[in-house]
Design brief:
Blueprint lengths: L16 E15 L4 E16 L3 E4 L2 E4 L6 E16 L4 E12 L3 H5 L15 E13 L3 E19 L10 E21 L2 E14 L4 E2 L7 E9 L3 E10 L9 E2 L12 E13 L2 E8 L32 E8 L2
Antiparallel strand pairs: 1-2, 2-5, 3-4, 5-6, 6-7, 7-8, 8-9, 8-14, 9-10, 10-11, 10-12, 12-13, 13-15, 15-16, 16-17
């Protein structure tokens, strides 16, 4: 609060928590046939977390910690099974089923409250069960992948700033949620030295407990690129297209950030080039956001209130940016 008169380096160091972990895991792979492989794994972790805080903050006040000296012990289990099948020498299918569990991390426990107390220390572990499917294609001219996922999350750790009686305060809540989506990308060598690239990604989520969209989900994004490469130099262009995101839940999210509203879509065009005058040296340059587009990422934080500056609701990304880079190896 007063770095000039009370520098933090001169203040005493206090221990607010203790995290202890012991774990064991194992994995196995088995060749079912010459074209099919099966892999699996299992893991168990014993966690013990101690709350050493005597007091916590409640607004501008310091009050006794309701979970002082509490010990949270959790035994978490995880596992997966994955099937890989070669359709041909160029194509492969992948199917996977996995389950993972994680405890609330430091920030989810110690920088939040719960719905009933001033401490988020006893937030329950999160359990995710996910189904994955993928397809890969590789040839001399084309490389392509497609992947899909569907997950069910029990006790998802939601950071909520809209809880009645605590509006504006970060509260750790356990909810049930579902997420699903997919990605696809392709690189196609259309001619000698020329390559076209493309990619698209989609992510969606549902807060099943509250009956709303799951907060902090990325919008649909696509990338289109072209590259020309010679032995000692290359150049390329990239168009990034991001769709509008209006599947939001204002005031809710995760420990990194909460939804602050819908965002508009945007398109960003960038150029780059590189030159390798000798084996150990590469010079690169480029122009990002060539047309100086004003835009902000959906998953970005609101601006902080700093004296002398206008507070922003969302932090914009840089405008036109010219960069130069040199890299060398020894």
């Amino acid at each position: 609060m007063n770095q000039i008169m009370m520098p933090y380096l001169s203040m005493p160091v206090t221990t607010d928590d203790l995290f202890e972990q012991q774990g064991i895991f194992t994995e196995i792979e088995h060749a079912v046939s010459s074209t099919t492989r099966l892999a699996g794994g299992a893991r168990a972790d014993l966690w013990e977390v101690t709350d050493n805080r005597a007091t916590v903050r409640n607004g501008m006040m310091t009050v006794p910690n309701p979970t002082a000296n509490a010990v949270d012990k959790d035994t978490l289990t995880s596992g997966f099974v994955r099937l890989e099948h070669d359709i041909t020498a160029q194509q492969q299918l992948l199917f996977g089923l996995g389950h993972s569990e994680r405890i609330a991390d430091y920030w989810e426990r110690f920088s939040t409250q719960s719905t009933t107390t001033l401490s988020g220390f006893l937030t329950q572990p999160e359990q995710t069960t996910q189904l994955d499917a993928g397809w890969q294609f590789r040839s001399s001219d084309v490389k392509a992948t497609v992947s899909l996922y569907l997950s069910d999350i029990r006790d998802y750790i939601l950071i909520d700033t809209t809880v009645a009686g605590k509006v504006g305060t970060a509260v750790s809540r356990n909810i049930n949620a579902k997420t699903w989506g997919g990605e696809a990308d392709v690189a196609w060598a259309i001619a000698t030295h020329w390559t076209l690239t493309g990619a698209i990604a989609l992510a969606r989520g549902e807060n099943s407990t509250d009956g709303t969209d799951l907060a902090q989900m990325s919008p649909i994004e696509a990338r289109l690129g072209v590259n020309y490469r010679q032995p000692t130099w290359s150049t390329g262009a990239l168009l990034r297209l991001v769709n509008r995101q209006d599947s939001v839940d204002v005031g809710k999210g995760n420990i990194v950030g909460q939804d602050i509203g819908a965002t508009t879509g945007f398109g960003i065009f960038s150029l780059n080039a590189s030159w390798t005058p000798m084996k150990a040296l590469t010079l690169s340059t480029g122009v990002d956001n060539l047309f100086d587009k004003t835009y902000a990422e959906h998953l970005s934080r609101g601006g902080a209130m700093v004296s002398g500056f206008v507070q922003t609701t969302r932090v914009n990304e840089p405008g036109r940016l010219v960069w130069l880079k040199a890299s060398t190896t020894f």
